[in-house]
Write a structure and sequence with these properties.
- It contains seven helices and no strands.
- It has a domain of 143 residues.
- With 235 residues, it is an all-alpha fold.
- The longest helix is centred in the middle third of the chain and has 72 residues.
- Helices cover 86% and strands 0% of the residues.
Length: 235
């Protein structure tokens, strides 16, 4: 009987301890749960203005939105334009080099023609001097007509050959160069010689030379003299 009482007291004591421990655990867990709930609710409340801001934010129209591939297309177009510019630059370099080479050839040809023309003009001037000397000799010494005529014919033949040579040179020269030479001959009082030279040149070349002359009145005067001068037959 005593043992039963002891067991009953022990069971009651254990039950009381268990109940007290359970109550203690329940009371200590409520603040933590409350804190967790507060932490959970606080971000939710903080997110409410953000959600409202996103909801009230103005949405872009379809035409205002930039296509995803527009930047790549613009870059491709710019690259294509740069490639075309590079190709044009390459072509311009080639054309510039060709023009420079052509200019050098023209300058060299002009130098050679100028030298040849100076020689021919010097010889023609020498022949003119000889002709004047013959006229003076004829007047002073009264030489026979036949001898003077022969000498005159020789001079005219030499002059004709040199005029033909000068005409051939001017046929191959540029119209600007030939026009400058003809103008210089006219300014030096050798207009008749200039007309004879032009009469020996090709008609197409003569037209270009007269057109290139800076003095239109001089070109017209030369053209009138050429019309009255009998054009020599082509050899």
């Amino acid at each position: 009987m005593k043992n039963l009482l002891v067991l009953g007291l022990v069971a009651a004591l254990l039950f009381s301890i268990s109940a007290a421990l359970s109550l203690y655990l329940q009371q200590s867990g409520k603040p933590a749960e409350t804190a967790d709930t507060a932490k959970t609710e606080k971000p939710a409340k903080e997110k409410e203005p953000e959600a409202k801001a996103e909801k009230n934010a103005p949405k872009l129209k379809a035409e205002d939105q930039i296509p995803s591939g527009s930047a790549r297309e613009q870059n491709a177009a710019l690259q294509d334009q740069l490639d075309r510019i590079e190709r044009q630059k390459s072509r311009l370099v080639v054309v510039t080099a060709d023009l420079r080479n052509h200019r050098d050839r023209v300058e060299q040809q002009t130098k050679e023609l100028t030298l040849e023309i100076r020689k021919s003009m010097a010889f023609i001037g020498e022949l003119d001097g000889r002709a004047k000397e013959l006229i003076q000799v004829e007047q002073a010494n009264s030489k026979s007509a036949d001898e003077l005529k022969k000498q005159q014919l020789d001079i005219e033949e030499s002059e004709r050959k040199n005029i033909e040579k000068l005409a051939t040179v001017l046929d191959t020269a540029s119209s600007e160069t030939a026009a400058s030479i003809i103008t210089k001959m006219a300014d030096e009082g050798k207009l008749d010689t200039a007309v004879k030279v032009l009469s020996r040149m090709k008609e197409r070349a003569v037209a270009k030379v007269l057109e290139a002359m800076p003095d239109a009145s001089l070109a017209a005067q030369i053209l009138d003299r050429m019309r009255t001068l009998k054009r020599p037959a082509s050899p």
